[in-house]
Amino acid sequence: YQEARKQAAAFQRFLPRRHPAHGAAATEQHFLPDLRDRHVLVRTDNTLVVSYINHQGGLRSRPLYKLAHQILVWSQDKLLSLRAVYVPGHLNLGADILSRQGPRPGEWMLHPEVVKQIWRVFDPAQVDLFATRENTQCPLWYSLVHPAPLGLDRSAPGSSRESAPGRGVPSSSSPVLAGPSMVLGPDFSPRRLSLGDSRQGRSPLTGRGHHSSPPAGAVEAVGVASEGAHLLASGLSAEVVETILQSRAPSTRKLYALKWKLFTSWCGHRQQDPVNCPVGSVLEFLQSRLSAGLSHSTLKVYVAAIAAYHAPLGGLSMGKDPLVTRFLRGALRLRPPVRPRVPSWDLSVVLEALCRPPFEPVEEISDRFLTLKSVLLLALSSLKRVGDLLALSVAPSFLDFAPGLSKAFLYPKPGYVPKVPSSTPRPVVLQAFCPPPFRDADQQKLNCMCPVRALDTYVHRAARWRKSDQLFVCYGPPKRGLPASKQTLSRWVVDAILSAYEASDLPPPLGVRAHSTRSMAASKAFLAGVPMQDICNAAGWSSPLTFVRFYELDLRVLP
């Protein structure tokens, strides 16, 4: 035993403290008496550690190869077997927090027994206005970060704190636990919150005579009678409300909250209740948006957002009201959508540029250009939306490469619902372009456009700084290694196209959007004779009519 501990200590001196593989080795050494002559499974949130342990080394990094070799040699006569599996970071919070010397200073909570005593005095609360999934005391909560079942807290940095018309100013003499900005009981009224009625004689929390109007930030944090609060007030349980709220994607909830905030501000200036206002007020608001130049599709988003928060009228949702339906139909006739039929950029120019610096050689280019090239090639070859790319993962069960890198198979993360749900979910299958050996220069050039080659290089390169199992992560500070947002992916696609034009000494095209890759790639495939049904299956379109109406481009105008 002593000899084994001496060997472990000697081996530990060889391990660089900065690399995650040190954690795996140090753990094995520490528990050596219990692990000797046993099969050992290492669970880690670092994909590079998993790869180098399971493959007994690798070819991408010589220092990591030496480190993996040392671990395996050390384990050879002490363990029966050594294998590693990947655990997503969000499922490894306990070990991750302990490895960073304890929880973050802001992540604290009252002891549950103390909370129970508070509930016995003031009745249980249903909504926590400032919490996270780890420290919330209520079934529903607002948070500064996702996940947030009721939305992001409006008291976050950068949020408006000005008092809206009709809302009171908080009194400094009010008891801390007497105002609705702290907690909301199960019997609070969305209408009362939306009006900010200062005539209320009793606190919704204490039931006593002490009362002060809630601060504007607190009222906005509840979403001025948010959808969750409205459902709770209708008598549904907190568990049912939480399940209902998860029916929309986080991006949809965020968009609806923004549109609803604009509507409540419009109503506030006119001293109207946004939750119970008549349909005429909603139509006046929509008319003001239409006169401001908004399109029919944007107005439909406003209607959907208002319908999510507004009280039903005559048993019908605001979005199904006959007058609202006719208004939208009239807006469509007055302002029909106009779609450009001529592409704003040339696909051949971009692909030619991807075969030259700064996009090649792919093993030596910067992290930025490797990321841009990988994102653009994946978007073009898969015909997927940016939101679909956001759902891809590098976890072993969601990303597979065929032998010889002839193909790549990418599966979306569980729970992801695409914009057009399919009865038979299909993985993203990428076909390699002319893998080596090459017969001529043309094949080598075609291989430079290969999405499988770019993706494989990116996955191995990003493993050095990856902090998430999402496929695409940020490459630069201050969010290096963190998952890229939908807006970031869209910006990368546009930057890749503009950088390709710049590398070709051509003026950058105007009005390039990330979504244009679907139109360009689908039109190019159709022109090349690819069956329309295959194009629809890859793009997630329910029928060829979608392609004809919204995506088909006239590529014959390009040289």
From TrEMBL:
Keyword tags: DNA recombination, DNA-binding
Record-linked CDD domains: RNase_HI_RT_DIRS1
Keyword field contains DNA-binding: yes
GO biological process: DNA recombination
Region described as Disordered: spans on this chain: 153-217
InterPro entries: DNA_brk_join_enz, Integrase-like_cat_sf, Integrase_recombinase_N
GO MF annotation list: DNA binding
Recorded superkingdom: Eukaryota
Protein name (Swiss-Prot/TrEMBL): Tyr recombinase domain-containing protein
Organism encoding this protein: Cirrhinus mrigala
